[in-house]
Specification:
With 397 residues, the protein is an alpha+beta fold. The chain contains 10 helices and 21 strands. The chain folds into 2 domains: 2-183 and 311-394, Aminopeptidase (3-Layer(aba) Sandwich); 184-296, Alpha-Beta Plaits (2-Layer Sandwich).
Length: 397
């Protein structure tokens, strides 16, 4: 194994410019959720050039590349959609330049999350160079619509494509650390019904804004007493939107709506989170709803799921974690940091719903995700491509 590891490191380093150039090409293609067609086509071209055994898209638009045909199944997953750029004046250069300079690849999606797919394409090329022939099927998935609805793409892969792997590596940014979990989340909408009256006589009506405001203050208190987990940290809830309506600006509001961003730590579930809010709303003329997501993919397929994204983690001594740590140490001659994501990933479906063992390992610092002046070190891309290729060997050792 030592000679293979040495060769993988050499190849990953020799392909540094290739990996950075592939990433630059992907960054130059604007690819918001539901608009990933062009970047999917580019990723497929890159997989073809790398010599993948099979390359296709499913009906949702996910890119699926394959190497090998063994009984065990490993997947490297990375989403190819990005968020928008926000206030362009906050950027010091063109967000879609894909500029390679100063040891970095610059632009929107360099960290979140096109760096992972660029690195796993190189890993595939390395495996083909080494004539990888272990008892393993490796899928490389460039997934879609993750920014709008994390995990939706994997709901489709599992339920419609019937891909249920033995192991998954999520290539979201981890700063080259090994991640083994994250808090879950859900989106909740509360609607309050009032009775309008003329603004000169508010006592004749029932102001929905006041009802919603009382609920907001109780939700603020709820946030302080939510559960905590030693690894994942504390659950949280915040009001992220407040909307109201009335017959006119000279009338008592008869409608109000608030949107909650609820982050779930270990042991918190959809049922427990809804019940906490229901308790706050007792006696109010109000309704609670866990929202649904349903949108049309770039392929024309309309697909969706509930906006409940379960908390997930795998244990520190899980075989997948141990194999990843062994792979890292053999490549880089140092022990890895094992940690968790602050944000949400496709792991909410992969492990949260389907209990498929998964870890995270990706290039870039998650603090730059969704931020202006996003950039990823070329050295991270090199390390990630080496890690993905070596993991395929260690997982079959």
């Amino acid at each position: 194994m030592k000679s293979i590891v040495l060769k993988i490191n050499e190849l990953a380093e020799s392909y540094a410019g290739y990996t950075a150039s592939n990433l630059s090409e992907l960054i130059k293609i604007r690819s918001l959720s539901t608009g990933e067609k062009a970047v999917a086509e580019a990723l497929m071209r890159q997989m073809h050039e790398a010599g993948f055994d099979e390359i296709r898209t499913d009906k949702l638009g996910n890119v699926i590349g394959r190497i090998g045909n063994g009984s065990k199944v490993l997947v490297f997953d990375g989403h190819i959609d990005t968020v928008d750029v926000g206030n362009i004046s906050n950027w010091s250069s063109d967000p879609f330049s894909g500029e390679i300079s100063g040891g970095f690849v610059h632009g929107r999606g360099s960290v979140d999350q096109k760096g992972g797919p660029a690195a796993f394409v190189t890993a595939g090329r390395i495996l083909k160079d080494l004539a990888f022939d272990r008892n393993l099927t490796i899928y490389f998935t460039g997934t879609v619509m993750e920014e709008d609805c994390d995990g939706l793409c994997w709901k489709y892969l599992v339920e419609e494509e019937k891909i249920k792997p033995d192991f998954v590596v999520i290539t979201e940014p981890t700063n080259l650390n090994i991640y083994r979990g994250q808090r879950g989340r859900m989106e909740i909408e509360l609607t309050f019904r009032g009775i309008s009256s003329h603004g000169s006589a508010p006592e004749r009506g029932k102001n929905a804004i006041y009802l919603a405001s009382r609920a907001c203050l109780e939700i603020e208190k709820l946030n302080e007493r939510l559960k905590s987990d030693d690894f994942l940290g504390k659950g949280s809830v915040t009001v992220s939107e407040f909307v109201s309506g009335s017959p006119s600006l000279c009338a008592v509001a008869d409608y109000a709506k608030i949107h909650l961003d609820r982050r779930l730590t270990w042991g918190e579930t959809k049922t427990s989170a809804v019940e906490e809010i229901r308790e706050i709303m007792k006696g109010m003329d109000a309704a609670i709803e866990v929202l649904q997501y349903k949108e049309t993919a770039y392929t024309g397929l309309r697909y969706g799921m509930e906006k409940y994204y379960p908390t997930w983690k795998i244990e520190e001594d899980h075989p997948m974690v141990l194999i990843a740590q062994k792979t890292f140490t053999s490549l880089f001659n140092t022990k890895p940091v094992t940690d968790k994501w602050t944000f949400s990933t496709n792991g909410v479906t992969i492990n949260g719903y389907y209990h498929i063992p998964c870890i995270g390992f990706g290039p870039g610092n998650e603090e730059l995700a969704h931020a202006p002046n996003e950039k990823v070190p070329v050295s991270d891309l090199v390390a990630a491509s080496a890690f993905y290729a070596a993991l395929a060997y260690y997982i079959t050792a």
